[in-house]
Amino acid sequence: MFIENRSRNSKxxxxxxxxxxxxxxxxxxxxIYSSANNHIQAVSFFSLDNVYTKQLLFIGTSIIIxxxxxxxxxRLYVHYAMYIYYFTLLLMxxxxxxxxxxxxxxxxIKIGSFSIQPTEFAKFSTALALAKFFNEGKTTSEKKYMxxxxxxxxxxxxxxxxxxxxTGSALVFFSFIILFYRxxxxxxxxxLGAIAFFVSLFTLxxxxxxxxxxxxxxxxxxxxxxxxxxxxMIRNTILYVVFIVFVFGVNLAYQYILQDHxxxxxxxxxxxxxxxxxxxxxxxxxxxxxxxxGFWGKGYLNGTQTKLNYVPEQSTDFIFCGIGEEWGFVxxxxxxxxxxxxxxxxxxLAEKNRNHFVRCYGYGVAxxxxxxxxxxxxxxxxxxxxxxxxxxxxxxxxxxxxxxxxLLFIFIKLNNN
Amino acid sequence: MGIIVLVLLTYIIRLFQLQVLDPSxxxxxxxxxxxxxTEHPARGLIYDRxxxxxxxxxxxxxxxxxxxxxxxxxxxxxxxLLEISKEELLxxxxxxxxxxxxxPSLIAQxxxxxxxxxxxxxxxxxxxxFVQNRTLRHYPxxxxxxxxxxxxxxxxxxxxxxxxxxxxxxxxFSGIEKAYENELKGTKGRRIVLVDVHNRERGSYKDGEDDxxxxxxxxxxxxxxxxxxxxxxxxxxxxxxSIVAIEPSTGEIxxxxxxxxxxxxxxxxxxxxxxxxxxxxxxxxxxxxxxxxMAMYPPGSTFKLANGLIALQEGILTPSTVYFxxxxxxxxxxxxxxxxxxxxxxxxxxxxxxxxxxxKSYYNILSNRSKYPTIQKAYQAxxxxxxxxxxxxxxxxDLPYELKGIIPSVQxxxxxxxxxxxxxxxxxxxxxxGEAGTTPMQMANFMAIIAxxxxxxxxxxxxxxxxxxTPNTRFSDRxxxxxxxxxxxxxxxxxxxxxxxxxxRSAKIEGINVLGKTGTAQNxxxxxxxxxxxxxxxxxxxxxxxxxxxxxxxxxxxAAPIASLITEFYLKREVxxxxxxxxxxxM
Lengths: 417, 587
Fold this sequence. Notes:
The complex is a heterodimer. Chain A is mainly alpha-helical. In chain A, 69% of the residues lie in helices and 3% in strands. A three-stranded antiparallel sheet of chain A has the order 1-2-3, with helices on one face. In chain A, a hairpin with a 2-residue loop joins strand 1 and strand 2. By secondary structure, chain B is α+β, with helices and mostly antiparallel strands. Chain B folds into two domains: 36-66 and 88-222, Penicillin-binding protein 2a (Domain 2), CATH 3.90.1310.10; 226-585, Beta-lactamase, CATH 3.40.710.10. Helix content of chain B is 35%, strand content 20%. Chain B contains 21 helices and 22 strands. In chain B, the strands form seven sheets. In chain B, strands 2, 3, 4, 5, 10 and 18 form a six-stranded mixed sheet that branches. Chain B has a five-stranded antiparallel sheet with strand order 12-11-22-21-20, sandwiched between helices. In chain B, strands 1-8-9 form a three-stranded antiparallel sheet. Chain B is elongated. Chain B starts with a helix and ends with a helix. The A-B interface holds A 38-40, 285, 287-295, 304-305, 307-310, 324-325, 328-329, 332-333, 336-337, 340, 343-344, 347, 370, 374, 377-378, 381-383 and B 1, 4, 7-8, 10-12, 14-16, 18-20, 22, 24-26, 28-30, 32-34, 194-198, 202-203.
């Protein structure tokens, strides 16, 4: 009953997205093969000890998943959106009790020799749930608390992920702000967010005293300029007080909530600490690997930095280093372009779609992919602190590939009808 | 949309900056992953004049460990292989861990080929261990230690002087190894390898395209005659002193013995510093001291030959000049005694080593006021002759650490005698005593001058470099002495007579005309040194020999038989006088 009737197909699969998807997955596999192929041990190609053989298996299963998704009636996703969301939340909570540690994050369920990370699946299920939420008609009283309710959909998984000590993934859930913005969240919030970001950066780089001084100066200037307008003066005063509290909050969070390794990552990024062999090592080696690629790159399988393990996690979080080193500026730009093209294509299709659910989901998909892409590549190029999240479709890993495939192909399927 | 485009632009610009604009990342990457490994060439081989191998390289194998790659292994088995106790093995591994977990450390040094072969087969069972090979000098015959020299690791000073050398390189420290370092050292090779983040080698870079193979050092043919050298060392055993034998027609040193000596194999590899210390602490035998080049003795009676030559050249003497010897030379205050008495010409004086005759001649050289207005001028003229014969100067050939000897300057005597001195003041130098000091090498070279009748080649120890047919031309210049050949013939007659019917009768050899001269170097610290020089055969001299045996008394008793045995051995390749040989060896 869930198998859809072919005759009802209205538009057909968007091949542009499928091609971007396939290109990224192929580039990913080639890069994983190259970084793992370092002539140390002669292991049979078909041995599951090889990451590239495993990844091939993941790609195969992902394609099966894609086909299954395309075959299932799209109304099912709309109908069961909330259940899927609750199920993944349940899995995430389960991880807290029966999960295993990988790289410091307590976020994995071990099944045989494979590990599954439910957080990856929570990303698309949250997108589904939010789409469903915004799509449902709302009473006036419901509208009053709409943004609060919407943010609950994000903050519940964020809290669970934080409990799993997986800060990187927690950040990804903030990507839904893009969706909120599309659904009418006032720009003030984003502007405030941006200001808050710079204020916290300023605080961390200098110290809270300077920040308070700077804020006070700004406040006094505005007070002088807008002294005629009582309403604005009250608003400014409230903002001023909130920011002062925020500054000290940032400082306290930095001092007491962040763990040592996170503090060091931030310090090295903003240039407070220089330690090329210690805390800076990974960031530095990552830049060296990309930088040494030059314009045309060293050629496929000729990278040295990634192959010789100078770059950490060279097939997962730092996989972009391999692309940068072996394919150079040209290849890396192509990869970046592919991502941007895919994201823009998703947004365009979402905008064109008259179905509100599809539009919301589309923005969720674009947001998730964009945040992953921006944080991951920004991190490898030394523009952002080191945050361990995978590069969609490219990084090695079953959970991540399956989740992103599901995320994208549900959108393709929804857009289809 | 705006954010997406902004991120796109930022990232592309950043990418461009990292990859295209900033070249430092490329350099850092190469520094990271490429390591240049120096491949050490084997040193050149050293042969004797007849192609017998004197020095070659022996492969030695060091067992190394990289602590980080260690896995559980059968300690007992490895201990048995290495023949060390388990505690010792664990101690060494502990030490390695303390030094570095990534860099290889030494576990067992210089295993033999057999041990290595045995271990190599089982090495896969000992992860973290590997074998590194290097070459060590080896001496098949434990002879000529002083001349061959030894190699050792360079120190910081040497590296500063010559940047070719790096820490751990070997360099010749003495002897031929030092003098021919440039030829022997070869050319270092270079291998560029990929190194991973754990400092492990991961194969060659660009499949070895930029690698350079090391070039083995050039082989060297020494002038030494292995069997003669061996024979000389045998004759000198349990004695102190030296033998120097030179082929006068080339200046090639045939054998050079300094006794007591040591086995050159002692100063090789890991035992070198320990053994060197032990040898250097041996203050009774001083085995490291090369007496042939560095010991200075009064020249003794053999110096009379030089003075005879100068007197003949200066016209002070003619072959028919006869001086009467009353059994001593009286210079007023005291008398130089003489074993001989009667009237002699220069030939007879050489034959009987007459002190009176040579004191008189020497006095007359220095008192030749018709030619030299002052004693200073006369002495300087004599000194010039003597210096031109190689006394009081260094040869500066390829010999290690030679001593200059002493031929006092005019200023020395001026100072010592407050400018008032004459021929009699310094007359003891006329018979080879007094202030003069010479080395065995200088004396042997002087014999070569006599054999050549007026010239010499710098005595040297390397005959050919590279192949046997590419002679070492550094020492092919004749150095002339300003004395006419006929005077040498006169002196040689005296030396022939000395062997036939004079002081050197003990040097006579059946069937070979030997010219000889005894000497006794006065030793103020004990019994006199026994000295003998000889040239043979008279018709076409092929060898000149100098022998000095410390504290052995009169020249004819020990030194002369040794010199004659050396001559006989070299010219006839066998010694018939077995009883004499045995007596000398057992002395």
